[in-house]
Design goal:
Elements: E1 2-7, H1 12-24, E2 27-33, H2 38-45, E3 49-52, H3 55-58, H4 62-70, E4 76-79, H5 88-93, E5 98-102, H6 117-125, E6 130-137, E7 147-154, H7 161-186
Parallel strand pairs: 1-2, 1-4, 2-3, 4-5
Antiparallel strand pairs: 5-6, 6-7
Helix pairs in contact: 1-7, 6-7
The protein binds 5-O-phosphono-beta-D-ribofuranosylamine.
């Protein structure tokens, strides 16, 4: 299965896919970032083509440019800590071939503005007893596509958002590769 991984940050989810690519049965054809980020460095370190489509340059044409770059090159687009919202044209054209990982139990704590530490802060402040992460297909909405996998973690009474983020991230690093593996096997 040929995949593109889209990143905006540290790329720890990308790293877990790189580490498990053979076991998953996928080949990472390229990494695309919407900003300068360590995720692009990781691609370079592993000899994987990296493409920067700066969101400040492309603005509303970012999705169009993504489609140009990815068309005919990959079977699956993996959003791994990617922060730009893809528009309906690309999510329709790639329907069923874009997945995203979100660090909460969707539909809770999802939607615009809910990303990264904001999520874990909101979960802790809401006094939730559990959280987790969700891998889902990307549709035209934000964090609203069909759910593929979801796994839970406990929220401990005196957890800080950072404690929770660490616990959830460990889970993400297992769940996303597993989801890609399942898609690769069915491909
Ligand atoms: C993390 O908040 C992760 O939960 C989410 O995107 C953020 C960055 O992840 N999926 P990564 O280290 O760039 O993969």
């Amino acid at each position: 299965l040929k995949i593109a991984v889209l990143v905006s940050g540290g790329g720890s989810n990308l790293q877990s896919i790189i580490d498990m690519a053979d076991e998953i049965g996928c080949s990472i054809e390229l990494v695309v970032a919407d900003r300068g980020c360590y995720g692009l460095e990781r691609a370079a370190e592993h000899g994987i083509e990296g493409v920067l489509l700066d969101r400040k340059v492309y603005k509303k044409n970012l999705s169009e440019m993504l489609d140009e770059v990815l068309r005919d090159r990959v079977d699956l687009i993996v959003l791994a800590g990617f922060l730009s919202i893809l528009d309906e044209n690309i999510t329709n054209r790639w329907k069923g071939r874009i997945i995203n990982i979100h660090p909460s139990l969707l539909p809770k704590f999802g939607g615009p503005g809910m990303y990264g530490m904001n999520i874990h802060r909101a979960v802790v402040e809401a006094g939730e007893r559990e959280s987790g992460c969700t891998v889902h297909y990307v549709d035209a909405g934000v964090d609203t596509g069909e759910i593929i996998f979801q796994e839970r973690v406990e929220v401990k009474p005196n957890d800080t958002p950072e404690d929770l983020q660490k616990r959830v991230l460990t889970l993400e690093h297992r769940l996303l590769p597993q989801a890609i593996k399942n898609i690769a096997m069915a491909h």
